[in-house]
Amino acid sequence: MTSLPFIQVDAFADAPFTGNPAAVMPLGQWLDDATLQAIAAENNLSETAFTVPTPDDPDADYALRWFTPEVEVKLCGHATLASGHALMGGRTAVRFRTTHAGILTVSRDRDGYALSLPAWTTEPSPLPDLAAAMGGDVLETRWRDGGYAIFAYPDDAAIRALQPDFATLKKAGSILLIATAPGEDSDMVSRVFAPGAGIDEDPVTGSAHCLLTPYWAGRLDKAKLTAYQASHRGGRLLCRLSGDRVILTGACRTVIEGNFLL
Q: What is the rounded distance in angstroms from the CA atom of residue 260 to the CA atom of residue 39?
């Protein structure tokens, strides 16, 4: 029997039981992919983050991968923030090397952390089938290759009222479906769905704000934005566009520490 350290962290959370929970599992070396996927399925959280130290890498402290209960994903913001929180120790920053998103950095920021992610732009694209399955009065649809879609709605109320057809959306595959509108008490409000990856609705999604921050920065002509993700748990983020990076600021709370017995 092998014992693996296990930390469950509520990310983008000012208190326990808010934000988005992620499992962080620091490893000494990589397990095979099937085992990583099986562990993530057992954890049954939106993401499980696995890290391995990279002592010979001058640009990163750890390699990082993320798995939903069903698939490996190319980028996960909240589980990266949670990993930084779990591994920070006495450091001021932790750097992660990833396969698809380059180097990601989590730094201390007052009572929380700042997460540096790539700024991803989107292009106008007709997505009639997906828009119909999302429901509501869609004003604009945008796309980024790799499986990222933005659906713009008129207001905060339209976002909160959405009842997507998850069965239809799941058939479209692993796409991050981002519904957004101007917020009532924030610059932007969103909800995020990924049924093709085994997550009907994600509580707070850092990767979605890689796309939302450039989108709303351009429309509102401001580089610093406040964001609210209107899931059942809810989450607030501070977002800043800095060149080709998006800086997300939020707090984390550790809720479980233990061992996974394999």
A: 9
Query: Other C-beta atoms within 10 Å of 242: how many?
Result: 12
Rounded to the nearest integer, the mean pLDDT of the chain is: 96
In our burial notation (b when 16+ CB lie closer than 10 A, e otherwise), range 153-180 reads beebebbeebebebeebbebebbbbbbb
Here the tokens at position 180 are 């957004």
Q: Helix 206-220 and helix 77-87: axis angle, to 10°?
A: 120
Catalytic residue among 47, 70, 72, 184: 47
User: What are the tens digits of pLDDT across the range 89-125?
Assistant: 999 999 999 999 999 999 999 889 999 999 999 999 9
CA 38, CA 240: separation in Å to the nearest integer? 36
φ, ψ of residue 29 in degrees (nearest 5): -155, 160
Per-residue pLDDT reduced to its tens digit, 181-230: 999 999 999 999 999 999 999 999 999 999 999 999 999 999 999 999 99
Residues 6+ apart with CB under 8 A from 192: 176, 177, 178, 179, 201, 202, 205, 208, 229, 231
Reply yes or no on whether 201 is catalytic. Answer: no
Confidence category of residue 17, pLDDT binned at 50, 70, 90: confident
Half-sphere exposure of 20 (CA within 13 A, CB side): 33
Please give the structure tokens belonging to residue 87. 């591994």
